Amino acid sequence: MSDKIRLLVGSDSAGFDYKDAIYADMQADDRVEVVDLGVYAGDLDGGSYPSVAIAAGEKIRAGEADRAILFCGTGIGVAIAANKVPGIRATVAHDSFSVERSILSNDCQVLTLGQRVIGLQLARRLAKEWLGYVFDPSTPSGPKVDEIVEYEDSLTG
Fold first, then answer.
1. Which of 32, 61, 110, 117 has the highest CB neighbour count under 10 A?
2. Apex CA 26: angle with CA 93 and CA 17, to 5°?
3. Could you say which protein family the record assigns here (predicted)?
């Protein structure tokens, strides 16, 4: 069994350039096994932000992946869509502290970034930083995340 993070990257057309850049970065990162969910260069009209985000969330929920980094114009749309998948915690983050806390405080499986909001070099840095964090359920954040999961479980039966 591999110790590598099974990572998905995806975008709509508004996040395509950053998605492709992060995908290339992740292919060179020995911490991850990365899969590109699209959209792809030949079909920039083929994927809406909800379809890509929901597909990523479903793959994580099914145990086929551990995390995802998703892009759209702002990062907001893919975060909202991914959060509709039961069991998924997704957040938009555009600074190092928020990226850190998304894992250490919230155990987020999905990081979303906005191509129209931040520069490419910052997006690359944040993606790499995010992969270095691991949630510790024994911290004071553990019971808080458990409370979220329990509530969600009560809704989905």
1. 110
2. 65
3. Belongs to the LacAB/RpiB family.
Q: What are the residue ranges spanned by the domains of the chain?
A: 5-156
Tell me what pLDDT residue 48 has: 86
> Is residue 72 among the annotated active site residues?
yes
CA dihedral 62, 65, 67, 71 (to 10 degrees): -90
- Which residue in 24, 16, 9 sits closest to 72, CA to CA? 16
pTM to 2 decimals? Answer: 0.95
Reading the block at residue 89, the tokens are: 């915690």
Tokens of 90: 């997704």
Judge contact between 2 and 128, C-beta under 8 A. no
CATH fold of 5-156: Ribose 5-phosphate Isomerase B; Chain: A, (3.40.1400)
Q: In which residue ranges of the chain is pLDDT below 70?
A: 1-2, 44, 46
